[in-house]
Design brief:
This protein has about 375 residues and is α/β, with parallel strands linked by helices. It has twelve helices and 13 strands. It is globular, with a radius of gyration of 22 Å. The N and C termini lie far apart (about 50 Å).
Length: about 375
C-alpha cells in the first residue's frame, strides 16, 4: 500500500498594494516610490509577495516565483476620485486573498482589518502642519486608519518623526524606508522642449511648494535664465500662475511645460542651470534626489528633510527669503565651474541613495507581521 502524498502547506504571503501605479499616482512621487520598492521586493525570495492591483494595464508583465499577483477587474472603479470606492475594492481583495499580512501603499485606499495585519506607507503629514484639524473629516478618518496600522513605513526621518509626534504612533511601530534613486544611463535624450538657459522647478502648485518665493527671486535679478515648470497643474492654478508672473514683471520668462515623460525630464534636469526646490515643507523631496542622480546643480530650501537627501552638495536658502534665493540663482548663473562641481558631487551623493536599507527594513517588518510579533490593526 502506497503512502499518501503529503500536501505541502502554502507559505505565508504578504500582499503589496501596487494600485498607486494605476490610480493616478503614476506621474507622482508615490508611484515612483511604489514601483521602486515593488521591483526590489520581487528580487528577493525570503518573503513571498502577492501584488495587489488592477487587471487593466498591469504594471508588471511578469511576476517571478515564489511571488504571485491578484489582479482585480476595475469594473468602473475610477482611478483617482471617490476614495470610498477604492477602499471598497481593497476590501474585496482582502476577501479574495489568503495573504497573511497586507501592505497598503495608496493613502486613498487605506483600510483597517480585524483579521489581518495591515502595514501602510506614509509619505508626509503636510496638512497637519496647518493645525491639528487640518484636512477635513476625510483626512482625519485617514489618520485614524494610519494609527490603527500594525506598522507604519515612513519615507524620511522627518516623516517618521511626524508620525510619532503628531499621530502618537509608538516608535517601535514606525519603520524608516527611505527610497533609493536610479542613476540614469548615458543614453541619447530627446531634444529639449525649450531654448536658452533656464532654472527648473518640478512639482505641483500646492502652497507648500512655495513657488512665489522663486518668482520673486527670479524677478529680483537680471539673469539670462528663464524658469521652466514641470508638473500637471489644473487650469485654475495655471491662471493663478499667469497672474503672478504678470504681477512680478516676468512675462516671457516663465514657461509651464506640463507633464513630461521620463526621458524629457532627464534631459531637462541635465541641461538646467540649476534645479530649484523652494518648499516650505516636504515628505522627502524626490526632485532633489532625481536632480542629483542626473548630475544637475541643485538649490533647495533649508529644510532638514531636503538636507537629509542632498547631504551638503546643494546651495540652500531660508524658504522665506527671496533675496537669499536670488543670491543662489545668481551664483550658479555666473559660475560654470561651481555648476560642474556641484553636479559631480551630486552624482556621487546619489550613488549612496540606494534601496538597500528600505528593502531590508521592509522585509524585516514583513517577517514580524507574519510571525505575529506585531498586533493586528483595527
Amino acid at each position: 500500500m502506497t503512502s499518501p502524498v503529503p500536501v505541502l502547506a502554502e507559505p505565508p504571503f504578504v500582499a503589496l498594494d501596487v494600485t498607486p501605479l494605476q490610480n493616478g499616482h503614476r506621474r507622482r512621487g508615490i508611484g515612483t516610490y511604489v514601483r521602486g520598492l515593488a521591483w526590489r521586493l520581487l528580487e528577493q525570495d525570503g518573503v513571498p509577495i502577492e501584488l495587489w492591483g488592477w487587471a487593466d494595464h498591469r504594471p508588471f508583465d511578469h511576476v517571478p516565483p515564489p511571488h504571485r499577483a491578484l489582479w482585480l477587474p476595475r469594473l468602473g472603479v475610477p482611478r483617482t476620485r471617490f476614495p470610498a470606492l477604492l477602499r471598497s475594492a481593497m476590501k474585496v481583495r482582502l476577501g479574495l486573498s489568503r495573504a497573511a499580512a497586507v501592505h497598503l501603499t495608496d493613502p486613498n485606499s487605506l483600510i483597517s482589518s480585524h483579521r489581518r495585519s495591515i502595514l501602510t506607507t506614509v509619505y508626509d503629514l503636510i496638512p497637519l502642519h496647518d493645525g491639528p484639524a487640518a484636512g477635513g473629516s476625510a483626512y482625519q478618518a485617514y489618520l485614524a486608519r494610519v494609527r490603527a496600522a500594525a506598522t507604519v513605513f515612513a519615507i524620511s526621518q522627518a516623516t517618521a518623526e511626524d508620525v510619532v509626534a503628531r499621530l502618537s504612533v509608538p516608535q517601535d511601530r514606525v519603520v524608516l524606508a527611505v527610497p533609493g534613486i536610479e542613476i540614469p544611463a548615458a543614453t541619447e535624450l530627446p531634444v529639449l522642449p525649450l531654448r536658452g538657459p533656464y532654472f527648473l522647478f518640478v512639482g505641483s502648485p500646492d502652497p507648500h511648494k512655495n513657488i512665489g518665493v522663486l518668482l520673486a527671486a527670479l524677478a529680483a535679478g537680471d539673469l539670462p535664465e528663464r524658469l521652466a515648470i514641470v508638473g500637471g497643474w489644473p487650469v485654475e492654478s495655471l491662471a493663478e500662475l499667469r497672474a503672478r508672473v504678470e504681477a512680478a514683471g516676468l512675462e516671457g520668462r516663465v514657461e509651464h511645460l506640463g507633464f513630461v515623460d521620463g526621458a524629457t525630464l532627464l534631459s531637462l534636469y541635465r541641461s538646467a542651470t540649476a534645479v530649484v526646490l523652494p518648499s516650505l515643507i516636504e515628505g522627502f523631496g524626490l526632485p532633489v534626489a532625481e536632480a542629483l542622480a542626473a548630475g544637475a546643480p541643485v538649490i533647495h530650501s533649508r529644510l532638514p528633510v531636503l538636507e537629509e537627501v542632498s547631504a551638503g552638495v546643494a546651495l540652500t536658502f531660508e524658504p522665506a527669503s527671496a533675496a537669499e534665493l536670488a543670491g543662489c540663482l545668481a551664483r550658479l548663473s555666473s559660475d560654470p565651474a561651481l555648476r560642474a562641481d556641484l553636479g559631480a558631487q551630486g552624482l556621487q551623493r546619489a550613488r549612496a541613495l540606494t534601496w538597500a536599507k528600505a528593502v531590508d527594513g521592509t522585509v524585516a517588518a514583513y517577517r514580524r507581521a507574519l510571525s505575529g510579533d506585531v498586533p493586528n490593526s483595527g
